[in-house]
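Handoff note, outgoing to incoming analyst
You'll be picking up this chain. Sequence as last confirmed:
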Amino acid sequence: MKDPWNPLSLPSQRGRTVVVTGGNAGIGYFIVEQLAQAGARVVIASRSQQKARTAISAVKERVGATDLDFVALDLSSMESVREAAEQLNALDRIDVLINNAGITDAGKRREVTKDGHELVVGTNFLGHFALTALVFRSIQPEGRVVGLGSLSAASTKLEADDLYSERDYQPSRAYGFSKHAVHGFAFELDRRLRAVGDSRASLLAHPGWASDKFTPRVPGVNDNPSKVPNPLPMPQGKDKGAWPIVRAATDPDAESGTYFGPGGTGGLAGNPVRATPPESSAAPAFGGALWKDAEQRSGVTFAL
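Most recent structure output, in case you need it:
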């Protein structure tokens, strides 16, 4: 089915407030830049205030946007997540929460968060689960939560009984598990929203293959481009990798439960279109068990 979405001509976002975790670098930076250019007020939630301020200055210089702010957030610390949520709940409104931040380069040895959970899943998923739960009451009716998925979930066999790698740790496996969890949370949130008739939406998007090598240089934000060759016949930078996430946040016709990704080259690059998630990530049994376990591990109850 032909999809006419144009990522270079977004609907106006004036009057909307979007929170982007990890919006100071990588794909997150370009999510912020594109939304700000469309008129949104954007709040970057990240660990480094200095890096966030640098990103904010770059957005202002590159696209002329001025309504940007920063909230400190370390997703590997539940104390930090609670403090960030308190500040975000003090905003006059939140229209979209984009759970973008995360660890992409897992260490060779298993590490844990400040609360004792495997670091990659604990950061990429559990921290976002708690943050979403704690700010959900502040998200406007018709508002959205957007999770950052990954094709790695399709290439990593889900072992739900070892999600936090307590039995076996491998870096790529841990990262794939973290994205299975992100997927499972997004789809379970969608199911629960629909079950209670909540008008808010949960969506998911993946960036495909987004290479630093083909990303526009932004001084202070991405000064060290990757030297790893891009195997794609259609080179794609992180600016284009942001497109599916931005579409999930802004497409007025996107329904809760929709999964977006690049439409060309096997889902690795191209304009954002509706995609099909791995069956294991989308399974209701996995989502329900994941939710219950996340509440126990985080100490945060997420009741709708």
